[in-house]
Protein 1
Amino acid sequence: MRIAILGAMREEITPFLKKFPNYTQEEVGGNTFYKIAYREHELVLAYSKIGKVHSALSASSMILKFGCEKLIFSGVAGGLNPKLKVGDLIIASKLCQYDVDITAFGHPLGFIPESSVYIYPDSQLNAIAQEVAQQKGIALMEGVIASGDSFVASSEKKKWLIKNFQADAVEMEGASVANVCHLLKVPFCILRSISDSADGEADVSFDEFLEHAAQTSADFVEAMLEKLLPQFT
Ligand code: ADE
């Protein structure tokens, strides 16, 4: 089984490279892909750079060029649901692109013709994430993740995202990766650790907690791999 592990920022992938230091690397489309033998399986790791376009390209490369059969996204997000505190984890129950707007033509916010507002992750991967959470004794929220090409740092925008998309967390890549995986029929899971509350202090919180939150997410993904991969040997 060949599994893609994708992050957006270097800091989101560094914890994996520390865990698995024996890799070969290949450049495609401005990204470095790290190939790691993991038991009888293969991991392909990359960070895409920030945003929906970069992450869509990286996810596509992982699937079409490197032949990845499942994809796990690991990274950080801004918390919108007040239950989510810095360091908490969330997996997406569904994802939307909150910055898609063709309402001028009578479509709902976030809707693209011949697509849908929400894209759904793989239920088996999400179930494995919940098993890992149970094993580790941590709460894992399953909620709506809204993605767009802005860093959200205001209470007004938070309210807007909750009102229009019932979003629990916000980030800048999940929905584009979800779209690519959905269209290419590759099961995926989007996991995020909360680095900030997407409010007026979000920038400071993000800088302070990015590394720790990225490590939390990476540790969780490693535990998921330990549960998932024996099923395919
Ligand atoms: N990723 C982490 N925090 C974020 C925020 N507040 N807005 C967008 N993406 C994020």
Protein 2
Amino acid sequence: MTDGVDWLADLDRVLLPESVLRQRVRELAQAIAADYAGKDLLVLGVLTGSFVFVADLVRALDLPLEVGFISASSYGKQSASNGQVTVLEGLWPELSGRDVLLVEDIVDSGHTLAHLRQELARRGPRSVAVCCLLDKTERREVPVTVEYLGFSVPNEFLVGYGLDYAGRFRHLPYVAALKAEAYQGKDEQSSEVLDDVGAE
Ligand code: IMP
Ligand code: MG
């Protein structure tokens, strides 16, 4: 405890404990391994939110593969995306002829994934599928296909296991819901804290 400040005070409750995440990642990896046997698998994580999920998923995958990352940002406020997605150009690995598995932390409005699927298709891969840990179905604005889904989650702001709030909490080993009062109303009030200027 630093200075008596409880850095977890903004958390409401643990939604997905470590053991539950571990078990589901194992199941997803088994399904993926069965589908990609004999293929040229490139696991492509979306920075920053997917880094923990990718690390656990690839270590559970019993088949040859390569790992890469791309960086996507939606320049809306921190707790909601506005549909304008920017992808850093420099990071794209060569995709032509590869079997690409795009790995995301969470699908919310769907704008990020819909945009990334389009971008991927332009680069000539042999196949594209999406593996996403969490899905807030209730919030969808554009339809997206997710071939491998971890969990459907309620419409609350979630942190941990890669997910952040204003850059914090990514390293929690579980997924937790943030207290509503920790983020509600703040989007309008303090834009220098909440403007999403980095990678998701
Ligand atoms: P979408 O474009 O609205 O589907 O937003 C997807 C992105 O928004 C995700 O990749 C996350 O970076 C971010 N996001 C959406 N919901 C949450 C959440 O509950 N916690 C943390 N990040 C979130
Ligand atoms: Mg993300």
